[in-house]
Design a protein that fits this description.
By secondary structure, the protein is of the alpha/beta class. The protein has helices spanning 2-28, 56-73, 96-110, 141-158, 170-173, 190-197, 199-220, and strands spanning 35-40, 50-51, 54-55, 77-80, 115-122, 133-136, 165-166, 179-186. The strands form 2 sheets. The chain has a 6-stranded mixed beta sheet with strand order 4-1-5-8-6-7, with helices on both faces. The structure holds zinc ion.
Length: 227
């Protein structure tokens, strides 16, 4: 009888222990309850920039998938604008690119995302130019803060010498949801072209972006919806 009591007590202690561990780990995830939309730029009929057979849309998607994993590991609820080689335009759109971007904006809104991250690759005629950089629109005050936070990690982790810039592109001036456009590097630079195609560098990019988001949220939780 006494042994049975001990057994029950031990069992209770064991379950309390298990529950606490789960509770602590759930509490300690930095992106818990944050909804993030990852937007792999271009896709389908729209390749973006390219070098021979190397297309921006494919690299964007690979980086976006790595980012999805990294953010999920840190507790975020992640949505992907696209998970395969498609674009979001309709056969009825007279302006395909506009239709594609409009539907991306709708997805950000429908999912009630707290923030979005657009992934792109750059090109410049001068092939010496290189480095990851972050662009933002001034539509809300959060965008610059998020851009600065991610850019700091690009400088620290990836030795990027670039800096944040503003953009007035259609997609970024038409959503009040906080978010940034990330140009992960230059396809026109031979060294960076190789790096951008390697899994390890894509992982580094995903890491730096995630760290930038975590830092931004930890500093700006109170003004999360400041518009
Ligand atoms: Zn692009």
């Amino acid at each position: 009888m006494l042994i049975n009591k001990y057994k029950t007590l031990l069992l209770i202690i064991f379950f309390i222990f298990l529950f606490s561990i789960q509770w602590i780990s759930a509490q300690s995830l930095p992106l818990q309850d944050t909804i993030i939309m990852v937007d792999a730029g271009h896709g389908g009929r729209d390749s973006g920039t390219y070098y021979g057979e190397i297309k921006e849309k494919d690299i964007n998607l690979e980086i976006a998938k790595q980012l999805e994993q990294e953010l999920t590991k840190n507790g975020a609820i992640v949505y992907m604008i696209r998970k395969s080689d498609i674009d979001l335009s309709s056969i009825y759109d007279s302006l395909k690119k506009r239709g594609d971007l409009y539907r991306r904006l709708l997805k950000i809104k429908e999912t009630k995302s707290d923030l979005y991250i657009s992934i792109h690759i750059n090109w410049y005629d001068n092939s010496t130019l290189k480095g990851a950089e972050v662009l933002y629109n001034d539509i809300n005050k959060n965008n610059k803060l998020l851009a600065t936070s991610i850019m700091n990690y690009f400088k620290k982790d990836l030795n990027s010498t670039r800096s944040i810039k503003t953009t007035d592109l259609y997609m970024y001036r038409n959503t009040t949801t906080p978010g940034v456009l990330i140009e992960c590097g230059y396809l026109s630079n031979p060294t960076e072209r190789n790096l951008l195609q390697s899994k390890s560098y894509q992982q580094k990019l995903a890491n730096s972006i995630t760290k930038g988001i975590i830092k931004y949220l930890s500093k700006n939780k109170k003004i999360k919806y400041l518009i």
